[in-house]
Amino acid sequence: MRTLPSRGTSNGAPPRGFTIVELLLALAILVTLAAIVVPSFTSLLADRRVARAGDQLRVEMMQARLASMRSGRTYLLQLQSGTNNVRIRPWVDMNDMTEATDQTGGSSALLTGGNVVGGTMQAVDTEQETRSVELPETLVVSDVRVQSSPRSFMIESQTQGESTDGWSQPILFYPDGSTSTAAVTMNSAGAGRIIVILRGLTGEVTVTDVLAADPNEVAN
User: Fold this and answer.
1) Most-buried pick from 64, 90, 104, 176 (CB within 10 A)?
2) Distance between CA 141 and CA 132 in Å, rounded?
3) Domain coordinates of the chain in residue numbers?
4) What gap in Å lies between CA 108 and CA 185, rounded to an integer?
5) Least confident segment among 79-93, 157-171, 178-192
6) Bigger pLDDT: 57 or 212?
7) Is 82 helix (H, G, I), strand (E, B) or coil?
8) Under 8 Å between Cβ of 205 and 61
9) pTM greater than the 0.70 cutoff
10) In this structure, how many other beta carbons lie within 10 angstroms of the beta carbon of residue 171?
11) Edge-to-edge strand order for the sheet containing 74-79?
């Protein structure tokens, strides 16, 4: 009787294993694929960190605006150049304070228009109210541009000396919901940059997509 060949073979011989050449070829293919996939995956994670930092700063700006509207005080947000440090603190403007005509603080007087208390803008001891925030450590603030206005001149002139410590011109949040018009650029080494834009009239904050790194900023 004729013997049937073993399963998996054509002539009944035992199946052979992989040769060293085949193993080396498979290994070379895996290494090539890894060289293509790993950098892309790493870049994706880095871009995600940059985007998360933009979202974090956007939230901080929204909270500063809300705190200003609730407290009736102007708030300052400053960023330290070359670091990931942010600080938010209140500022008292005597011109923004209103004294009710009936001296009771009732809403009826405020609705009809209170008497504005005369005076000049002055700082108060707000050290305990200053809030420090750290953005993701892979990010650094590279550029802060704030549009000056007659309304912001007094505060800017009194905080000008802080620029020696690397702190930026203050971004202001007013009790009426308006803000400074500003743009903050943040960079991550090898992972591009992102720009957070604040529109002064509406207080709206937008964050750009992750952009290619600026060669000039990387060189610096």
Assistant:
1) 64
2) 15
3) 20-219
4) 45
5) 157-171
6) 57
7) coil
8) yes
9) no
10) 27
11) 131-134, 85-91, 74-79, 171-173
Distance CA 38, CA 31 (A): 10
> In the chain, pLDDT over 70 holds for what percent of residues?
63
DSSP string, 183-219: EEEEEETTS-EEEEEE-TTT--EEEPPPBPPPHHHHH
Ramachandran category for residue 119: left, alpha or beta (phi over 0 → left; psi -120 to 50 → alpha)? left
Report pLDDT digits (tens) over 69-114: 999 999 999 999 999 999 999 986 554 444 333 344 444 433 444 4
CA distances from 172 to 37, 108, 178, 211 (A): 44, 29, 9, 26
CB 140 within 8 A of CB 48: no
Residue 37 or 86, more confident: 86
Closest CA to 170 of 130, 210, 209: 130
* Alpha carbons 174 and 179: distance in angstroms, whole number: 6
Q: How far apart (Å, rounded) are the C-alpha atoms in residues 19 and 7?
A: 21
Specify the CATH class of 20-219 in words: alpha beta
What is the per-residue pLDDT for 44?
54
The contacts found for 203-208 with CB under 8 angstroms, 24 or more apart, are 203/65, 203/173, 203/177, 203/178, 203/179, 205/58, 205/61, 205/62, 206/58, 207/51, 207/54, 207/55, 207/57, 207/58, 208/54
